[in-house]
Write a structure and sequence with these properties.
By secondary structure, this protein is α/β, with parallel strands linked by helices. The protein has 2 domains: 5-150, Alpha/beta knot, CATH 3.40.1280; 165-224, tRNA(m1g37)methyltransferase, domain 2 (Trp Operon Repressor, Chain A), CATH 1.10.1270.20. The chain contains 9 helices and 6 strands. Strands 1-2-5 form a 3-stranded mixed β-sheet. A 3-stranded parallel β-sheet has the order 4-3-6, covered by helices on one side. It starts with 8 loop residues before the first helix and ends with a helix. It binds adenine.
Length: 225
């Protein structure tokens, strides 16, 4: 649900997400919130009661758009309505993994100063933030969720093993990787990777992942214990 559906087209049609759509593994419906305004100016926002900055998205307009998106109460199994908001829980790899098991997600992109609290109370199951900074709307965050979740849907990434070895699965950063040429600008490739000893390579990679995580992301490293 968005006021700017045109922002989604290129992402939903390209790369891995586009292929997942072509294969029928995921599908998307873009709902223009403005289509659910009823007055002749197609008003979607209004000033806050009590005064203050900016405009809020109106609950009645949002509610009709949400019903069109398939929103129901009580929420059916494995469905959720998510409001993208800087006030939400942080989006992490664990959240992406959890949401990739859902059958139907309704992503609501807020705009202006926010949305009427009654829409949140009635319709929103979770508020999700992509980080501690404020963007002009929920569209880019929604695209981040779409990308991060879609690639975890079974069958989307050909090799399930490669998803399991992603950076941040298990809270570890990825080990250093190299491809041809064997020498580039005077720099070689670690000998062990040329050894053909798969056990030794796996141990080296794990050690590099740990060292890297401890150096670059001490917060993640501590959390692993
Ligand atoms: N809307 C505006 N800023 C946001 C953020 N950081 N995360 C999610 N939604 C947002």
């Amino acid at each position: 649900m968005t006021l700017f559906p045109e922002l989604f087209g290129p992402v939903l049609q390209s790369s891995l997400v586009g292929k997942a759509v072509e294969k029928g593994l995921v599908s998307f419906e873009l709902i223009q919130i403005r289509d659910f305004a009823t007055d002749k100016h197609r008003t979607v926002d209004d000033t806050p009661y009590g005064g203050g900055e900016g405009m809020l998205l109106k609950p009645d307009v949002l509610y009709r758009a949400w019903e069109k998106a398939g929103g129901k109460r009580p929420a059916p199994e494995k469905t959720a309505t998510i409001l993208l908001s800087p006030q939400g829980e942080h989006f992490t790899q664990a959240t992406a993994r959890e949401l990739s098991t859902y059958e139907h997600l309704i992503l609501v992109c807020g705009h202006y100063e926010g949305v009427d609290e009654r829409f949140i109370e009635l319709c929103v199951d979770r508020e999700v933030s992509i980080g501690d900074y404020v963007l002009t709307g929920g569209e880019l965050p929604a695209l981040v969720l779409i990308d991060g979740i879609t690639r975890l849907v079974p069958g989307v990434v050909g090799n399930e093993q490669s998803v399991a070895r992603d950076s941040l699965e298990d809270d570890l950063l990825k080990y250093p990787q190299y491809t041809r040429p064997r020498e580039f600008q005077g720099l070689g490739v670690p000998e062990i990777l040329l050894s053909g000893d798969h056990g030794a390579i796996a141990r080296w990679r794990l050690a590099e992942s740990r060292a890297r995580t401890s150096r670059k992301r001490p917060d993640l490293f501590k959390r692993r214990g």
